[in-house]
Amino acid sequence: MTEFGEINADLGQALQLMEACQWDQAIVLLRAMVDARPFDCRAISKLGFALWKKGERKEGAATIEKALQLDPDDGEVIKDCMHVFLEAGRVDDARQILESYVQRNPWDWEIKESIEAMLHQTPEKSPPRQRNDNGTATADVLVGLGEEEFAKGNTDRARVCFEMALEKNPTNAKAYNNMGVLAWHQGDLKEALSCFEKALDLASHDGEILLNATKVLEAAGEYEMAAQLLEIYLTAHPTQTEAWKDYRELVRKSAQSWSPENLDVNVAQIYLDMGRRLAEVEDIQGAAEAFARAARIDPNNQEPYHRLGLLHMQLGQLQEALEMLEHANSLADENGEVAEALEQVRQQIDASSAFGVKSPGT
């Protein structure tokens, strides 16, 4: 284990290297310190400053912002952040950081005077501003930091990062997605659904958002809507076998939760026609759902049970086919097609039993 005294000695050595503008050596030493103590905000801040001075502007700015998120009240971190912002021509942002720091730490006159002197030394004509794409890049950094904190179980810190990301860029779909995940883990389904709705408005075909929204909708009992979102996902990811399993289960739950109350029996015929057309194009799952709804609307109609029985036979689900066909046979007088299918499925079950083979539905 690295001792505290060793860390201080290493930081002192790194500062000496930075004063001598030996950026490469300082960066190597500071990276080792950050690896040993990933929450040492001062080491992280100095690493970011060294990277910036070396010319690694993007990584340098992101590293300093990480330090700022870890401890926005560390004076040394504030100084490094101010240096970078002023060199980037972001004087207004630098002033805003100073004002926020002083409001939280009104007693720290030393830091205030030091930074104000920095501001006064800034030439009036600054280089072109680099505003991090109007906050887009900063928001992306904050989202990444939040995800790191969430992975470590620090949900409060994660939430702060995601909220700050949305302040920087209100159109960051990933931040809304992550806020939805946080709400879901805390059992707030309503808030989770609201966040995922906003995320989908911004990125309607994002696979991660679609899967997360599907899970929350399923937990909320919105099976049909969840199935619709998963259909969109599967269009782009047709080889995802687990997603197909989830989709079939959602369709099954949707059929069970759907209510035919107050629907006229004529609507059953519409579902029957729909089921026939879906079966013709080999959409077995869709056809099964349509026939199941027809049966629930008009439970005395033989045809939907007959059709369901045939679909189960097509899938090799002999026991389910037998139950559907027997029920269909009990609903009306002699029907040659039903009787023929019933005899066929009984023969297949007998043949399977003779060879000790179980059908998938048994």
TrEMBL record:
Residues 315-348 form a coiled coil. SUPFAM superfamilies: TPR-like. The keyword Coiled coil applies. Pfam families: TPR_1, TPR_19. It comes from Desulfosoma caldarium. This is Tfp pilus assembly protein PilF. It comes from the Bacteria. InterPro entries: TPR-like_helical_dom_sf (IPR011990), TPR_rpt (IPR019734), Ycf3/AcsC/BcsC/TPR_MFPF (IPR051685). TPR repeats lie at residues 41-74, 139-172, 173-206, 268-301, 302-335. Keywords: Coiled coil, Repeat, TPR repeat. The lineage of its organism: Bacteria, Pseudomonadati, Thermodesulfobacteriota, Syntrophobacteria, Syntrophobacterales.
